[in-house]
């Protein structure tokens, strides 16, 4: 069954999954936090690091920039960015204190500092036009996408870049059917392997249902453009099972004037 049109999608998702988002997600992530990254590598048949490398390759950085990692989880992105450019100021926000505690320990073990905020990412506690780069990965299917993307647009500086990565709904119905079939097999196996608790095991049906009601890569690109982002680029991996996005906040004076398609990467002239 196809989800409703894009304009109605988030309202539909909220009505269907709002109770899970409000009441269950915290318990799920308390459960999976200690083994989150390892379990994803197993469930993805070892492709997890490849997804991460493709995502990181889209992110351009300049020395001294201010970065916000939304739904930062175990700080994998913030750590990778600081390894590439140690002069960055990196902020992380996530609703899960358990995931962020794992992330704090990982960063400190490497001698890195990431400022952490625990809170609702739909209402970002930062001023307008504050960050040069904002990232969001592996979380948007659990969120009100339009509301969050607008908040990210608000706190992003004009000319700043937003980078997104998540599991998406494939546009091809054959790929979609195979995808969900694989997840129905792999999620219970991974849960048993890591001895997941009741909260995570009970959420397996939700994870698939949430994807069925989610967006394709192309649809998320349309959402970003509708909010006012410029230079929106979307990449589909594995037939649309995973999508990557890059978008720019336009500068004053018009919707998208004066924004270069690509900033020079760190070290280039």
Automatic annotation (TrEMBL):
GO terms for molecular function: methyltransferase activity. Signal peptide: none annotated. The keyword Phosphoprotein does not apply. One of its GO terms (biological process) is methylation. PROSITE patterns: SAM_MT_UBIE (PS51608). Pfam families: Ubie_methyltran. Gene3D superfamilies: Vaccinia Virus protein VP39. SUPFAM superfamilies: S-adenosyl-L-methionine-dependent methyltransferases. Keywords: Menaquinone biosynthesis, Methyltransferase, S-adenosyl-L-methionine, Transferase. It comes from the Bacteria. PANTHER family: 2-METHOXY-6-POLYPRENYL-1,4-BENZOQUINOL METHYLASE, MITOCHONDRIAL, METHYLTRANSFERASE. This is Methyltransferase domain-containing protein. It comes from Parasulfuritortus cantonensis.
